[in-house]
Amino acid sequence: MARKHVRRSTIVLATSASAALLLAGCAGSADAGDGEEPQTITFAYSIAADAQDWYEQLAQSYMDSHPGVTIEIQKYGLDGYPSLLNTQLNAGNGPDVFYALSGTGQNPSVGPLADAGLVLPLDSEVLEESLPEAVQAGWVFDGTFYGVPTSVQVNGLVMNAPLAEDSGIEWTADTTLEDLAAQCGGASDDGIAVLGLAGAVPTAPAITALGFAASTVYGPEPDWNDQRAAGDTTFAASDGWKDALQAIKDLDDAGCMQPGAEGAGFDALTNGVAGGTMLAFAAPSSATVTLANASGGALQMAVLPMPAPEGLDPKVLLTSTDGIAGNAKTKSPELVKDFIQWSAEPEQAAMMAEIQGTLPLGGDTAELPEAYQSSQELLTAEGTRPYPPVDWPNGAVFDALGTGVTGILTGQLTIEQVLESMDTAWG
């Protein structure tokens, strides 16, 4: 397809919302307001400034249906939230309800917090009825729920499909890594970065690498995490992990990323797609709604897998890692449990999926938002893989991956050194 020279228009974002958020799911109570325990609780989470606030909408909906209950919202910046939450919970003055991540391999993952006795156990019988088994992983430890997901998301990339078409760039779910790299030079000449990266914030390069690992590592070996846990393999010995990191280096060498990607912040991603100078970046699929809302509907992003190297099938990562949990030291344990368990009921889960632009917790992909149409065929058991960090033993592995990718781009680290650091972090 012949490339076309495109005249780009700048889209003004209505909020300072960010790609950070992008990167960033009842107990049938009588009336929780009738109890003797305090009926005012706090709900803390991290969010980019002025971003669409679906958790506040969730809290308001609960208060509307439970007269007498007050939920006070506490919003924190994305970078400082994990350490602040850990400090507060350990000091005994943490929020009653808080945003958490599933599993053990991210921060703040619910597993280590529960192991430390800091998370309120929930009613497992109630939640087993409310939540499909597929989304329970990482929220249940020793048969007990310690939190619930608030969404099911695709972790791949979000792409400005109209800009790609206007620019003459062919990019679909089947586009290979090599085919995409071959188009980057021309796009760069037109002032367009095909793939954006916020290298200064470890989360962004980490999820970019995971997007490639979906096809190079977990596509051929879905049980790779189990092999690593058993000591049967290592990151450094894995050809698939080497290929995932090499893919990022190859795209950078081909001019696919924006100048200064290794030192860029989240604002480079939002400003890039809004200004028509960037096609795509790695992010959870809720980014499609956040960007559309922030631009007044002008930005219409599509959800795609990271391009797979020739000879490999593309895969997307499905994750129910975002959710909420309760403080074990809350003075209102019954109210906290009721709110959290209520949020997982089908009606509330459907509401959250709609306002976040995510998949329903039940996994029904029959009527997907338009953003998912280009990847709909992949959203089957064969085309998806679970989000790997959920099963990693600690958040240090994820951090080593993120900082390591940036080190590769700056030339300070080799692929081998990054993988060795991930093995060291694994322990």
List keywords for this structure.
alpha/beta; D-Maltodextrin-Binding Protein, domain 2; 5-stranded mixed sheet; 16 helices
Commentary on this structure:
With 427 residues, the protein is an alpha/beta fold. It has two domains: 170 residues, Periplasmic binding protein-like II (D-Maltodextrin-Binding Protein, domain 2), CATH 3.40.190; 204 residues, D-Maltodextrin-Binding Protein, domain 2. Helices cover 38% and strands 14% of the residues. The protein contains 16 helices and 13 strands. The strands form three sheets. Strands 7, 8, 9, 10, 11 and 13 form a six-stranded mixed β-sheet that branches. Strands 2-1-3-12-6 form a five-stranded mixed β-sheet. A two-stranded antiparallel sheet has the order 4-5. Strand 1, helix 2 and strand 2 form a beta-alpha-beta unit. The longest helix is centred in the C-terminal third of the chain and has 16 residues. It is globular. 55% of the residues are buried. The N terminus is likely disordered.
